[in-house]
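Anyone have tokens for Synaptogyrin 4? Sequence:
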Amino acid sequence: IFALIVFSSLLTDGYQNKTDSSQLRCVLNSNNVACSFAVGAGFLALLSCLAFLALDAHEGHIACTRFRTAFQLLDFILAVLWAGTWFLGFCFLANQWHRSPPKQFLLGNSSAKASVAFAFFSVPIWIFQAYLAFQDLRNDAPVPYKRSLDEGGVVLTTLSPPSAASPINTPTTGPNSVSYASSALSPYLTTAKVPRLVMMPDN
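Reply: yep, here.
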């Protein structure tokens, strides 16, 4: 909206002629570059806003994450560029308006003031737009893929502590008895070894 006000105000009353001449001149210190810059920048800014508005409306239908990330990055870059462009444009337009002779043109003073004022108002608007684009870009950043143990085929089970009545923890009474707290070695201790050599009985 601000870009529309900037270039439309200068298109309507930004070019005036003096009483002694029929040649149209810019009301900003008779500098046609200033009016051309404001009109061109405002028109291009309006087109870019309409293009991104149309893309924002169809953002939910975009399935490709790379295209969405590129779109958000382009939105952030253009917002930063437009903020800098309008800041420089405001300084240039305000300087030319300050140098303009008073009552040089019969009309166009209000249009020149409106273009300078809304060029200044465009700077914080584009900075805020860049901030919103940066927030969207940071929130939609891809999360690094972490492989879980379940995807690797590893099943984790919760080991409950053995009860007091378990035969593993039941102590064996006796002076020479040995008690083991873990059952990891129990198969090797309880399995009887088969002798490799068998003695043949005498006939």
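The helical segments are 2-13, 32-57, 65-99, 109-139, 186-190.
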